[in-house]
Fold this protein.
Amino acid sequence: MNNIQLNFTNNTNRGWRFVLFQKLANVDQSYDKIEAIAWQVLPLSPAQKQTATYPISTELVVEELNTPYTSEVRQTSRAVDFGQKWEFINSVESTDLNLLGTQNIDSSISCNNTVSKVVDISLFKNGAKLVTKKAVQQGDTADFLLTPKLYVMYANDIQVGNEIRSSVQSNITEIDLTGRILSADIALELVNATSGQKAWNVVLNS
């Protein structure tokens, strides 16, 4: 898969925020406390266009919520590939991420917390949080199997980093990331000016 250019157009008569997020295929969201995250939020006025990039590269990030070294959240990150198994460990001076030799057969990315503190474990793309598992205790594992789809939703009250719970996942369309997709043109169209009915139009370019 290559980086995919996403071209957005707002063809309605009012401004909207286009919210981009991804889902996990291997999780009961209500049980595992893994939430989809508003990865990108693009404000578009009527007739406005914006471009974003969905990158092939992915980062695994562990956030230590309470460290003795700083009052701020400390992050440890590594570039990762699908199928890799990682562990969060105590190193000589601090904490670190260690790549294990075995692979996940389902192409998921996993990380086991071996340190004696609770951490948040996430996947990032372009420096922004994509999915996260909160409060991973010592001995527990965060396991991320991303669906090969990117979702776009129009809203007016969502910020980057907000959790996208299933109860608010309306007005969405999906972009299929499989195959040799180079770019996608995504337009929100006004179907009926009287009722305000809208519809998504997605064209994939290979």
